[in-house]
Amino acid sequence: MVVTDSLLFPPSAMMKVRVTNMSGVDAVAEVGRDWTCDKVKLSLEHLLDRPASLTGLGSDAMKNSLHYKLVLVRCGKTLSNDLSIGQQGVKDNDELLLLKKRPDVPCIGTDRQREDKKVADIATIRKATAHLVKKHHEQPEEEASSSLDFQSELRRILISLIEASQRILCLNPEAAKIFQQAEEMLNEAPARKNGLAESSVKQLTDMGFPENRARKALLLNQQSVMSAMDWLLTNESDPNIDQPLPGQEEPEPEVTEGEEGMTQGTEGSSDDQLVGATGGAEGPRFKNILETIRAFQRREFRPNPRALQNLLEMGFAEKEAIHALRVSRNSQDAACDWLLSDRKEKPESVDQGLDVNSPVYKAILANPSVQLGLNSPRCLLAFLQMLENPISASQWLNDPETGPLLMQISRIYHSEKFTPFCPGGGTDTTEIS
Amino acid sequence: MAESKKAAAASTSSASSGNNTRDSRELCRDTSPNTHPNAEHVRRSSRSPVAIDAAVSDGGSEDKYTSEILSHVFENPRSSSPVEGATGAAPSRKSLRLQTLEAHISSCLKEVSDKEMKSNMTAPSPEIGRLGPPECCFDIITNVGTIIVDPDRLGISSHSNFSSIKASCCVYEGKWVYELMLGSKGVMQLGWCTSNCRFSQEEGVGDTRDSYAYDGSRLRKWNVRTKRYGEPWMSGDVISCAIDCDEGTITFYRNGVSMGEAFSSVRVGAGYAYFPAVSLSFAEQVHANFGSLPLRYPIEGYRPLQSPCSVEVAQAELLFTYLHNLLPKMLEDDQFERRHASAQKGDYPQVPLTEQRSHQATLTLIASHVFQRLAPLLKIPYVIEMCLVKFLLGLCDHHDWRAEQLYVNKLLDLIWMLLQEPEIRDCMEHLMISLLNGYRFHSFHPEFKYPKMFLALTLAVLRHQKSRRHLLTYILFDRVKFPVFMHIKPPDDANMARLIPNVWWDKNLKKDDDDEDEEDSPPEAQPETPEEKLNKKKYMLSCDRLSERVEELESMQVELLKCLLINKDSIEGKTSRDCFLEKLKIFLKENSGFSRAQMAQSCALPVSLCFFHRLVQALRFFWDDFCSTDTNFLPSSEAFTPIQCFWSDSRDYFEFLRCGGLMSHLNRQLGGEVNRAQGIEVQEDGKVVKKAMMALKDTAASVGEDYPRLEMPSGNSLQDLLDAVVLLYHIAAHKQLGKMCALRESMQDFITNLQDTETKLSECPEDLLEVRNHLENARNVFLEKITEQARQIVWVNRIIYSPNKQKDMVWLMKVVLKTVEKASKYQKLFQYVPEFYIETAVNTFNALRNYLHPTTSFHAIPDLPNILSRYASFLVDHFFDSRIVSNDLKDTLVQALACFTCYPDTLKILEDLPMDRRISMIQSLISPYENRSWAHTNWILVRIWKGCGFGYRYRFLPNLIPHKAQPTEFSYVSLQKPCPSQEFQSLLAKILLDEEARSTKFLDSLMNQLNWSFSEFVGIIQEIQTLASRTESLLLESRQIKICAACFEISVCLLRILEMVATIAPQVFTDWSRPSAELFLKRLMQLLSQIMSRVTMKDGAFESTVALPIQGLDSVTFYPILTVTVGIMAQLIVRCGGSSQEKATRSLLRDSGFSVDSLKFVLGMAPSVTTATTTTTTTTMTTTAEKEKDKDKDKEKKKADKVFSFKKFDDISQEEIEDVEKLLSYLSNQQSTLTAEEENVREEDLCTICYANPQQTVFVPCGHRTCRTCITQQLLSKKECFFCIATITRLNDLKGRQILREYFQPAPQKK
C-alpha cells in the first residue's frame, strides 16, 4: 500500500537527512517531505537490525519496521506516524535516529485481582506456623473493665475540684461575692423544696381528701396535684393508705440536725487550722463552702419514699436502707446491691474527694485547662451545682465555658482509669460508636 | 561495577584516588559526582588537566568523538569527570563501540544484578515468616465501615465514624515493620491484628483481644484495655509499626524515633500471624508503605513486608551513573549549538550534512542505549523514589533555586524523547507522588533544608514545559493533592523548642484592645528585668530567623504557582494557565460542598489558607505584568471584578447563590437588562446585533442613561483567577484564620491567670499551706503551658498573621469592596453579584480587625480611614438593600454594621459619612421589616443610645459573675463599652419629628414587637415556674431557655429604644397635635405598667425564675428591665415637666395595670399590705413569711440583704435615684386626686372596647362609638368599625366635629 501511495503522489520535495541506527550505522537518505515515518523506515531497511532472511518481502519488512521509531534529533521529538515527516518539522539536513521500540510490559504486580486471592486464610496460617513455640499465652484473659460507677466517681472528682477551686479562689478580691453567691444558691434550693406547697395540700383537702392522705399522695407524686389526685383515687381502697411513709418522721429531726451541723460547721471552722491569724475578717467564711454543701446535703437528702418502702419490705433495717439510698442516690437497684454486697463504700466516703496521691487526681490537676477552670468562679458554680443536682450536668456540658472543661476532665479521668468506655459524651464514645 | 558506582556516589574525597594514569585526572576535581555539576565549571577553570592520553581509535567505524564519549561515559564510571572529557581528547582503552554498546551495558547490568543477588542470598529469604502475595497492600474485602481506598490500595481515608481495614500480608516469624504516612492527625488506631479479629463500627484495631494499636491523638495504646503511650502526632508524620514475632513485642516509632516498647507480651507462636491493620475515625487519612517504596525511616533488624526490588535499584543506579557522565556533555553541546546558531542568525540548522554525525546525534544515540534499559525500570515506584528522585535532587541546585536548572531540564528532555507513552505516564505520576511525599513527610531540619530541596526540584520539573503540561493535565490535582505543595508544615513542639530555645512573652497584656487607643502605655507596666530583656532579645532573634526561612519557602511556592500560571505556552489553544484554572475550579467546587462525603475528601484548611496567600501573590504579579502591556487594565492594587463577569457563563462553574437568587432565575428576570447594559439587541428573528463600540461611545447617553459603561475587558483569565481567589478565601481561608485566633486567646488567658496566681502567691499568708501548695501547683502548670504556647504562637504571629498576610487581606478587601461598589451602580443587575463577594467583604474586615489585629496592628494598615469609610458606606448601602434577597446575608450585614457602631473609632467613620448616607442609614434602621425579626437593627439603635439611658452604662450586667463571652463577633461586641452617638441621636430625632408617617410606623411596630416579645417571655417563665414547683429537679429544654433569654433581651432592647425616643423626641408622645401621639403615649404607659407589675409581682413568675439557678438564664434579672421602665417614666414625668408631665401621669395612672407598689419595689421599699393587689397565693405566702419572721430573725435579716433596690447599684447615679423618688412621690400624690375624678364617669359612657376611657368618637357612617385610643389604634391597620365591619369614612367627636382627619386623607406614598 505504502508503495502505491508513493506512486500516486510522486515525491515532491525531497530532503536529505542522516539516519543513524542504534549500532551507530549512519546513512544519508533522500526522503520526501510528505512521507510518513513508516515509509521512511521502509526505505531504510538496511539499517534495521533484522536478519537478512526477513528483508525479502515488503510485508515482513513492514512488520519489522513496527519495532522501530524515528527520533528527530534537533527537537528531541519522537515522530508519529499520523502526520508526514515534513509536517512534524523535519527539514533538509536534519538528523534522525532509528531507535528500537520496547515492548509494553505491564508494571510488576498490576494484576492485583489474582493476587488478592493469595491472602492467607486461617488454615494456611496454622500450617505455616505449626512449628512455632507459643509464647505469652499463659497470661490470663483480660477482664473487661470493671463497671465502675461513674456517678460516684464523678462526685469525688467534683468534690476534689471544689476543694481545689475554693482554695485557689479564696485569695481572689472577688472571693466574697463568689462564695456568697454559691452559698445563696445552696440555701435557696431548700427554701424552694421545703415541704409541700400548702396551696397544693389545700387544693386536695378542698376536694375532700383527708390532709394526711393528701400530703402522702403529694410526696409520692412529686408534688403534682393532678397525679396525686389520681393516686388517691386509685388507692382509696388500699388498707395501708393511711400508714405514714417510712422515713417521713425521720427527716424532720434530720433537718435540724443538719442545720445545726451547718452552723456548727461555719462556726467550728474558726478553729480550723486554715484560718490562722491572717485569714482576714471574711477568710473563714469562704473556706467552709464545702462544709456548707456537705451539711446541706446531709440535711437535704430525702430517700425516695417508694424505693425506701420497697427496701424495707425486703427486710433491710431502715437506717441502713436510707444510707444505701444515699450512697446510690436513690437508685433502688443500686441500693439493694450495696446492701447485699460487703458494703465497701462507707456512707461517709460519699462526701470525700479523690485520693490526693492517686494518679487521677494528679493528672487532673496537672492539666492547664483544668487549672484555668479552677480559677474561674463560674466553673466553681458549675461544680457546685452538678454536685447538688447531677442532672444539671447536661446544661453545664452545653455551656461554652464549662462544657469543654468537663469533657476534658472526663477524658483525663477515663484515660487514667484505663477504661475504654466513656459516658458523658467524651470523645471516646463519639468516635468509636 | 556496582561497587564502583557506590564508590562514586559516596566519594567525597575522590582526589585521593590516583592509582592509574586516567585516574590522575581525578585530581582536578574535589567534588563528588553527586554535588552539582555546574559547580565544576567554575572549579575547573583554575586547574588544568594533568595528563592526556594519546588519542587512539581502534574501532574503525567509530569517529573520534563517539569513542571519546563512549569511553568517558561507560568505561570508568569512577573517573566520571563530566567536563574534562570535552576538552581533552579522551581515548578508550577497550574497543567500546556503538555496535557493542548494547552488549556492554547488558553485561554490566548482569554483573550488578548477580552481585546483588549474591548479597541477598545471605539474608533470610523474604518469604520466611511471611504469608501473602509478594506485593502487600490493603485488602479491601476486610473493610469495615466506609473506607475509600486509593487505586494503589495503599492510601485510605475513612468516610464513616469508625472504619477498619487489614493488609493483605501477615507475618508470624522474624521482625517486621511497615510505615504509615499520616494525612491527618485525628483519632486513629494503628497497629497489628490477627485473622481472628473481627472488627465492627464500635470495635477497631486494639479493641479486640488479638489486636494492638497506638493512637497519637489521644496518646494511648490499645489492647482491649488502654494505657497512656506515645507522643502526639501531627499530620505529615511517619509512624512505623514494628513487630517482633519471635519475642512477641510491638514498638511504634514516630518519625524514626522509638516511643518505647508498647506491648511486650504479644501472643505469638503456632496459629498466630499478624496483619498490619488500622482503624480510622471520620475523615482521617493515612498512606501505608509496606515496602513498595523505600522506608523513610528504616529500622535496624526489621524488614518491610514487601521486599525491596534491590536488583532493579542496583541496575538503575548504574544506569544513572552513565547518565551522570553523559548529561554534562549534552549540555555543553547544547550550548555550543546555541552559540553557533546565534552566530549564524540564519535558519537553523542550515549546516549541510557533513561526513560525520553531529555531536548531538551521537549523544542522543548513546542516551537512547541507556534508556533502552532504564525505561522499564522507571515504571517501578521504588526505583523512582530511590534512584530517579535522588538523582534529580543531585542535579538540582536548591540554593540557587531561582536559576534555570539546566541538568534537570535536560534529563526531562531525554525522558520525554526516549520514554514511550505509557512509560512516561507512570514515570511522571510516581515522580510527582515521590516529590510530594518527600515534601510532606520530610524529617525536620532547622534550616528547612528538605522542604526547600523538594520544592526546588518540583519547581525545576514544572519549568520543563512538556512535563508541566502533562502534570497539570493528568497528575496535579487529579492524582496528587497539589495544594499541599503550597502548605508549610509547622514544626512540632519538640522541634519548635530546638528552633526557639529561649521563651519570652508579653507580660503587659492589654485585656481590651479597644483601650489601646486611649492608653498607649498601660500605667501598671511592669519593668523588665535585664534577664527578661536578654530573653526577649534572643526570642525575637530566633523568631526573625524562623520567619526569614519560611518566607524563602513561601517565595519558592509563589514561584511554583507563577510557573503553573504561565500564559505564553499555548499548545492546541490552551495555555498552562487555562489548564490550571480548569483544575482550580474543580478543586473549589469539590471543596465548597458541605456534604459529609465532600468533607472527608476536602483539602485541609491550613493548606487552603497557604494556597490562598500564594495565589494572591502570583495573581498580583501577573496582573501587574499584564497591566503594563494593556492600558485598559488597571493595576492589581485597583483590581476588581467587573459586573459583566458575573453574568457570563464562564463564572457559573457551579451553582453558588447570587444576591438576587439563582443564576437561572436571574437570567429569566434580567436577561433583557443584561443585553441592554451590554449594548446588545436581540432582533425579532433571534439575531443578535451588537451595537458597534464606536457608536456606543458616541451615544454614551443612550446606554449611560441606565447603566454606567462597562469597564475592564472581560474574559481575561486573570479575572477568572481573581474570582477563584475570592472564592477560595470564602470557602476555606477565612475559617482557618479564625481558628488560629483561639491559640492567641487561650495564651492570653493563661498569662492573665498566671499573673493572677503569682499575685495571690505573693499575698498568700505563710501558714495557709494547702492554699500555697495549690497555688504553686497551678503556677507551675501555667508556666509550662505558656512556655509551650509561646513557641506555638510564633508560628501564628510570624507566619499566619504577619504583615505580609495583612497586605494580602487588605488587598482582597479592597478588591471586593470595589467590585461591589461598581456593581451597585447597575441597579437590578447588581443581583448578579455572588453572595460570597458580600460575605467576603465582611469577613475580610472581621479578619483584619479581630484576627490579625492586634498581632499585626489594624491601625497600621495604610490608607485605613479611606478603607474604613468605603466599608462603612458599603454596609450602610446594603444592609437594607432590597436587591439582596437572602435574609442570612442581610443579617450578616446588619451584624457587621452593629459591630461597626460600637467602637468609638468606627462610629466616628459612620458619623463622617456624607449626610445623605447618614440619613438613609437612620431611615433604613427605623423602617419596620416585614416577615422577619427586628432584633438586629434594634441592636444598632441601642448602640447609639447605650451610655445615655437610665442606669445604662454597664458592660457586664451588675451582680452577675462575669464570664467569658464566646468569641463570636456579635456577642463579643455587645459587651463593649458604651459609646453613644449624639450625632445619630439628633438625626433620628429630626427624622422622627419631621417624617410623620415614618415615625408612626416605627413606633407602632416597636410597641407591637415589645408586646410580642414580652408576652412570649412571660409565657415561658410561667411555664418554668409551674415546672419548678412540681418536680424535684428542674429539667428544661435548652432551646426554650435560649428563647426565653432572647425574648427578655429583646424586650429590654426595645424598651431602651423607647427610652431614647422619649428622651430625644418626647413630642411623639406628648405633642397631641400629632395624630397618634396620644395613642402612643397610652400604649407606652400600658406596656410600662404591665411590665412593671409582672416583674415586681411578689412570688410571681419573674421573681421565682430569677431565684432559680438556671444555667443560661443568668442575664434575666431585675436590673436591666426595671432601670429602663423606670427610666422612661422618669423621663416623661419628672424630667420633661409641663404638659408632658401631666399627660404622661394621666395616661399612666389611668392604666388599670399600674400600681405604685412596683415603683416602691425598685427602691427596696416593702409594699404596704393594704394597697397590694392581693391574690390568694400572695396572702398565704406573706403569712408564711411572717411565720418565718417569728421563727428566725436572722433569716429575715438575710432576706433584707437580698431585697432588690436601685440604691444598691453603683451603676445608678444619685441623681437618678432622686428622680425615681420624685417620681414616686409625685405619682402617689396624683393618684389620689385622679381616682376621685375617675369615679365621676358613668359606666355606660365607657368605651365598650377597653372599659378604661369614656367614649369620645363617633364613627361615620355607622354611628358606633369608642374612645379615641381604641379607634386610633385600629386605624393604624384598617379603617373598619369594630362592631359592624363597615368601612369608616370619617370620625366625629361627640359634638359632631371631624377629628383625626389625617387618617382619612388619601395616602400619596402608597401609590
Describe the protein.
The complex is a heterodimer of chains A (about 425) and B (about 1300). Helix content of chain A is about 50%, strand content about 5%. A five-stranded mixed sheet of chain A has the order 2-1-5-3-4, covered by helices on one side. Chain A has helices at about 1-10, 35-45, 60-65, 110-115, 120-130, 150-170, 175-195, 200-205, 210-220, 225-235, 250-270, 285, 290-300, 305-315, 320-325, 330-340, 360-365, 370-375, 375-390, 395-400, 400-415, 425-430, and strands at about 15-20, 25-30, 70, 75-80, 95-100. Chain A is of the alpha+beta class. The model of chain B is unreliable at about 1-60, about 75-95, about 345-350, about 510-525, about 690-705, about 960-975, about 1170-1185 and about 1305-1310 (pLDDT under 50). In chain B, strands 3, 4, 7, 12, 13, 14, 16 and 17 form an eight-stranded mixed sheet that branches. Chain B contains 44 helices and 23 strands.
Blueprint of the fold:
The complex is a heterodimer of chains A (433) and B (1311).
Chain A: H1 2-8, E1 14-21, E2 26-32, H2 37-43, H3 58-65, E3 68-72, E4 77-78, E5 95-100, H4 112-116, H5 122-129, H6 150-169, H7 175-193, H8 198-206, H9 211-220, H10 225-234, H11 251-268, H12 283-287, H13 289-300, H14 305-314, H15 318-327, H16 332-340, H17 359-365, H18 368-374, H19 377-388, H20 393-398, H21 402-417, H22 427-432
Parallel strand pairs in A: 1-5
Antiparallel strand pairs in A: 1-2, 3-4, 3-5
Chain B: H1 2-10, H2 38-46, H3 64-75, H4 84-87, H5 98-122, E1 130-131, E2 138-144, E3 147-149, E4 155-158, E5 162-167, E6 170-171, E7 175-182, E8 188-194, E9 211-215, E10 220-223, E11 225-228, E12 238-244, E13 249-254, E14 257-263, E15 274-281, E16 285-289, E17 303-304, H6 310-344, H7 359-377, H8 381-395, H9 406-418, H10 421-440, H11 449-463, H12 465-475, H13 493-499, H14 530-564, H15 576-592, H16 596-601, H17 605-627, H18 643-647, H19 663-678, E18 680-682, E19 688-690, H20 693-698, H21 700-704, H22 717-763, H23 769-800, H24 803-824, H25 835-852, H26 864-878, H27 887-901, H28 904-911, H29 915-926, H30 935-945, H31 969-974, H32 982-994, H33 996-1030, H34 1038-1064, H35 1067-1070, H36 1077-1096, H37 1101-1107, H38 1118-1135, H39 1138-1150, H40 1156-1162, H41 1176-1191, H42 1193-1202, H43 1214-1238, E20 1257-1260, E21 1265-1266, H44 1268-1277, E22 1290-1293, E23 1298-1299
Parallel strand pairs in B: 7-17
Antiparallel strand pairs in B: 1-6, 2-5, 3-4, 4-16, 5-15, 7-12, 7-16, 8-9, 8-15, 9-10, 10-11, 12-13, 13-14, 18-19, 20-21, 20-22, 22-23
Domain B30.2/SPRY (chain B): 115-295
Region (Disordered) (chain B): 1-62, 75-94, 511-533
Pfam families (chain B): SPRY, TPR_RNF123, zf-C3HC4_3
